[in-house]
Amino acid sequence: xxxxxxxxxxxxxxxxxxxxxxxxxxxxxxxxxxxxxxxxxxxxxxxxxxxxxxxxxxxxxxxxxxxxxxxxxxxxxxxxxxxxxxxxxxxxxxxxxxxxxxxxxxxxxxxxxxxxxxxxxxxxxxxxxxxxxxxxxxxxxxxxxxxxxxxxxxxxxxxxxxxxxxxxxxxxxxxxxxxxxxxxxxxxxxxxxxxxxxxxxxxxxxxxxxxxxxxxxxxxxxxxxxxxxxxxxxxxxxxxxx
Length: 242
Ligand code: PEP
Prior knowledge:
The chain is α/β, with parallel strands linked by helices.
């Protein structure tokens, strides 16, 4: 299992330092890979404190160019320089608040792979799309466009199924919905890239209380938002995954 904590726009550098030091006091087995994705400003301190530990870190977003006149953006080259292992792309907040398209997701994934940073491509349907029976066709369209002509080799490629209606709402997809979505994502990605291996994380209001029932067939770990802001809650989820 892989457990990634997405801090979103939370924690100052001082708060990040306290959190990471506390997390490092916990003892986790190597069977569960763990990572945090803090805001850009806390990446440097994360790199300093996590160096040589089993806990990885990454970013929540990037642009697809290496450098240039792109005010306010951060490139994969810069993330590599900081030691980032992962980078989220296509998180629903990026798609819905900042207008990120599947084509932009694809270009970011290409740029990240070029710098050997592992993209975590997030996909998921809105409640309206689910209620009108379109969940699977939305996933299919998002994946087809975002993963088109990516050079994945035979490395493990990580995706996250995050139903938009479950993110930060306390609503969690039901186990059969999760199983159906995860199995569809894996099959669809395999059809597109037969040689690659895929891991699909579930994200959307994951807590220590519900992670057990969410861990159905096809779930390769969790992308945790709100609950990853607390060392206690995040550690309990990690402990469940071991
Ligand atoms: C997320 O940010 O990816 C997420 C799943 O958030 P939450 O766990 O708060 O729903």
